[in-house]
Amino acid sequence: FQVKSENKKTIWNTEEVPEGSEFDDTWDPREKPEYEISFKQHVGTEDVFFGMTGKDPSTACCEDIVIKIKLPETKYSDITLDIQDKVLDLRTPKKKLLLHLPYPVNSKEGRARFLSEEEILEVTLRILRKFDFINFS
To answer: Where is 37: in which H helix or E strand?
Structure first.
């Protein structure tokens, strides 16, 4: 099996390297923060009272992923956040989180807010889904 490459000096093809592996640093001594992943869906009265759209409470019908990360003793200015299609990379001076996301997301249009009183970073990302019988939008 021969893989053709543009550059003869490369030892592997870019398709062989999993997404997010460039962030993985096993020798980093920073601890992993506590986090929670939840899913959010947009429902209207036609969903709640009439069940007209066929949505159910499963993650297959959710539009957003919400990740809440506890960052005690952290200032907003110390947070570095990088979002790829399937990876969330968060770094602070004391904490580091490399999180492989359960679904591909739109990395260009996410929202993040830091709740300083609770010391929680809340990241909301839109799930990228193919059109199917459940997800029409």
So the answer is: strand 35-40
pLDDT in tens, 15-48: 776 666 665 666 778 899 999 999 998 777 776 6
How confident is the model over 47-52, as a mean pLDDT?
A: 68
| Distance separating alpha carbons of residues 44 and 79, to the nearest angstrom | 35
C-alpha separations of 16 from 6, 8, 106 in Å: 15, 16, 23
| 3-state secondary structure (DSSP) of residue 124 | strand
The model's pLDDT over 77-108, given as tens digits with 9 standing for 90+, comes to 999 999 998 999 999 999 999 999 999 999 88
In 41-119, DSSP assigns E strands to 64-70, 80-83, 87-91, 96-100, 111-115
Q: Show the domains of the chain with their CATH numbers.
A: 35-136 (2.60.40.790)
| Listed residue (67, 104, 102, 65) closest to 84, CA to CA | 104
Is residue 110 within 8 Å of residue 125, measured between CB atoms? yes
Spatial contact of 39 and 102, defined as CB atoms under 8 Å apart:
no
